[in-house]
Amino acid sequence: MSIVFLNDAYLPMEEAKISPMDRGFLFGDGIYEVIPSYDGQLVGFAPHIERMNNGMKEIGIHFDWSTEQWRQVANTLIEKNEGANLGIYLHVSRGTDSKRFHAYPDDVAPTVFAFAFDIPAAPVADKSVAKGYKVSTTRDLRWERCHIKSTALLGNVMHFQQGYEQGANETLLFNANNELTEASACNAYIVKDGVIATPPLDNQILPGITRFMLLDILKKEGSLKVEERVVTMDEVRNADEVWVTSSSKEVAPVIEVDGKPVGNGQVGDVWQAAQALYSAGKHNY
Ligand code: PLP
To answer: Which residues participate in catalysis according to the annotation?
Structure first.
């Protein structure tokens, strides 16, 4: 049985109920996070909460729990739910209004929801056992505020579904200039001649916490060169390696783009080195 947190109580998932007038339900008017936990250890907790606070600020949801309050909820969910590897989902919607009206109401309390779900074990940095991802590509048709981790995910869901229906694990997205933005639920990277490149932070992509930690770890360690710059579709198609990152996947190697092998079609050496550094450094955030 799954125990969830709703507003101020822990209760079985089946008993957790919200009003259909909740603006999260009617408008996707909310902010969320997913934070991985391995053997009870949360990864990147503080930066995740900082991003959630930034998102709430940007959309005018006034809710100011401290990182420690959130940590207590996350740890309680870890305690109350079974499983060594858990994703902790945190969600704050603007709250329940009495009417359906677009303007932000100023007198409603935010709805706070959190639950834990199973995630795969953290990847091992060994290219002989790593799962190689297959991705498809498409034009990024989402909105121009992709830096906000909004619960309004239909654009991302539709892009994920496009790839899924073609048997792909993810969908790489490109803007109108054929520049890589990200994937439907991951940030994206290429490797060419040993140099890692990933699109810069702007309104076209989510500032991924895995991206932040990976780049920070790689830059501090210094053996692999990383560039934050525009990456073109041609570069993706001619890359030696392609990766996607997210909290529950860490650094995932892509071996096929639109049915064609990436590089030699095998998981690459640079991926192995980067995932090894990430595995060693991820608990320092
Ligand atoms: N980009 C999008 C659109 C996402 O939905 C996600 C994760 O959900 C990411 C990137 C990766 O972010 P993070 O590393 O914080 O999980």
So the answer is: 149
